[in-house]
Amino acid sequence: MAGEFSGKVAAITGAGRGIGDAIALRLLDEGAKVFSFDLNAPDEPRDGVTYLTLDVGNPGSVADAFRRIDQDAGQIDVLVNNAGVQRVALAENMPIEDWHLVINTHLTGMHLCCAEAIRRMRARGRGGAIVSIASAAGIVAVPGRGPYSAAKAGIESLTRVYAVETAEAKIRVNAVAPGSTRTKLIDEGLRNGSIRGEWQIERIPMGRLAEPWEIADPVVYLASDRASYITGQTLVVDGGWTVQGMVHIADWLKPAPPAE
Ligand SMILES: NC(=O)c1ccc[n+]([C@@H]2O[C@H](COP(=O)([O-])OP(=O)(O)OC[C@H]3O[C@@H](n4cnc5c(N)ncnc54)[C@H](O)[C@@H]3O)[C@@H](O)[C@H]2O)c1
Q1: Ligand 1 center to 249 CA (angstroms)
Q2: How many whole angstroms from 37 Cα to the centroid of ligand 1?
Q3: Domain containing residue 156
């Protein structure tokens, strides 16, 4: 299919559902050949996506997945590090297994996939684009999310380091930091009571959660040639959550409502 990514090959981690699935749909629409690296089977398989089942935190499995891309597609142009998992507890109650799981999935997973992709992009000499999913929770403090927030802040840091390491090879490395987005990750938090709907909305100036496509669009932009001079950056896509210093606006400051 003709499109901005026709002739290009993309690997997306965690594309079996949620934000990763939305990114896969956008890249497919733009003509990319898409590989998904996910621990679980997809909720709704998409025609044109090759679904590989693996743990992004496992070096051997990640290396095997990239070898599969070598065999099937012969190149890798775009990597999106999106796979994620959440475990919620205060520092003193955080099981060490949960700490390792969250750090391993987000941060080690990003590193392992970047290393495999960068090696191939450099060797081919045509550059490439890497976009990783960070989080607003890596920028502001969300209680109970110690390993998640640290891993997400680490993703921003690795983004800068790998951007500088690879710039001369025409590889661009960026991140998108979403705010609360309507996916099953959030549904799980609502179910287990670690978040409440009203807690989320009251802190978001736009007054609503993001839809997965609203995160996918900026990811696809950063992966595209339209972002040819952008590298080492994190684009925050959070409806204004992290820039808000004060939640309330005095009544007398508010503009009059629009005329009927
Ligand atoms: N939903 C939000 O509000 C929100 C906000 C900020 C950042 N994020 C981040 O966006 C990304 C996608 O989140 P989502 O909301 O779509 O979550 P989701 O739970 O709906 O999807 C995550 C996907 O990652 C896969 N996955 C988990 N561990 C894996 C592993 N070790 N190896 C391979 N695949 C694995 C899951 O099977 C799942 O398909 C995550 O990195 C998440 O931290 C989400």
Answers
A1: 34
A2: 12
A3: 9-253
**Token code pair at residue 113:** 């996939």
Supply the pLDDT for residue 1. 53
The answer to pTM > 0.90 is yes
Q: Is residue 86 part of a domain?
A: yes
Residue of 39, 111, 185 best suited for mutating to test ligand 1, as the one with most atoms within 8 Å of CB: 185
Query: How high is the pLDDT of residue 131?
Result: 99
Asked whether residue 106 is domain-assigned, the answer is yes
Residue 258, domain member (yes or no): no
Residue 260 lies inside a defined structural domain of this protein: no
Mean pLDDT by 10 residues, the chain (260 residues): 91 98 98 98 97 98 98 98 97 98 98 99 98 98 96 98 98 98 87 81 91 98 98 98 90 88
- In terms of Cα–Cα distance, which of 135, 129, 80 is closest to 102? 135
List the catalytic residue out of 148, 162, 221, 229: 148
Smallest Cα–Cα separation from 167: which of 78, 79, 230, 82?
Answer: 230
Which residues have a Cβ under 8 Å from the Cβ of 139 and sit 6 or more positions away? Answer: 153, 177, 236, 242
Q: Domain containing 235 — which CATH number?
A: 3.40.50.720
Q: What is residue 150's predicted lDDT score, i.e. its pLDDT?
A: 98
Task: Pick the closest to residue 130 from 183, 104, 169 (CA basis).
Answer: 169
- Number of separate domains in the chain: 1
